[in-house]
Amino acid sequence: MANLNIDFVNIDESEIRRHDRLLMGGVWAEVGLRYDDGFVFKGQNRPFFIDKIRPIQLSNRDITGLVEGRKRIGDRGKWMDLLLRSLGYEPTHPYFTHRRKLLYLGRLLPLVERNFNLVELGPRGTGKSFIYQQISPYCHLVSGGQTTVAQMFVNLAERPARTGLSVGCRRL
After folding, report:
1. In which domain, by residue range, is 97 found?
2. Fewer C-beta within 10 Å: the chain N or C terminus?
3. Does the pLDDT of residue 136 top 80, yes or no?
4. How far is Cα 123 from Cα 144, in angstroms, rounded to an integer?
5. Rounded to whole angstroms, what are the CA distances from 168 to 42, 116, 120, 141, 165?
6. How confident is the model at residue 163 (pLDDT cuts 50, 70, 90)?
7. How buried is residue 17: exposed, middle or buried, by Cβ count under 10 Å (0-12/13-18/19+)?
8. Confidence check: pLDDT of 35 > 70
9. pLDDT at 78 over 70
10. What's the rounded Cα separation, in Å, for the pair 140 and 148?
11. DSSP per residue, 13-47
């Protein structure tokens, strides 16, 4: 409960098992809190309890539903269109040739391949960073201005002068 500056919150163990990524941190969720001033744990008052939780982000790693859904779609072209549509693009627009669809889907590679960095150069406002800002909290995005290769891929501790778009993502 970092946003509320609450260090200790009680939660039922079954909720942790159901949403295992909660232990990793960084999962956004809507929660119902309860306050019980009488609860003491190891001599300290720990009054906050999570009664209900509805994760906004993916909170577990069960992808069997996704795999089954992919099998039902069948056609690779339909699957590509679904992915593009879920990224905010309309794949039936005449702009999207098969090659352009593949190029746009290529933007997802840093999300699924370890140690895969992507540099995409282009003018402002062309959607280079849109996917990374919307789809995953595990992406490091460097955009705008001027930068060097070392700043983009090595020295991310400082705020570098920047250019283009560089993306590196931790795999889940």
Report:
1. 63-106
2. C
3. no
4. 9
5. 42, 7, 12, 7, 10
6. very low
7. exposed
8. yes
9. yes
10. 16
11. HHHHHHTGGGGGS---EEEEEEE-TT-EETTEE--
Asked if residue 172 has pLDDT above 50, the reply is no
- Domain end among 13, 39, 55: 55
Bridge partners of 167, per DSSP, are 118, 141
Tokens 């879920």 correspond to: 86
CA angle 144, 152, 102 (to 5 degrees): 75
Nearest to 57 by CA among 97, 93, 29, 85: 29
Structure-token match 């999570």, residue found? 50
Bridge partners, 34 (sequence order): 49
On average, the pLDDT of the chain sits at 77
Shared-domain flag, residues 140 and 172: yes
Same domain, yes or no: 123 and 171: yes
Q: Which amino acid is at 135?
A: I
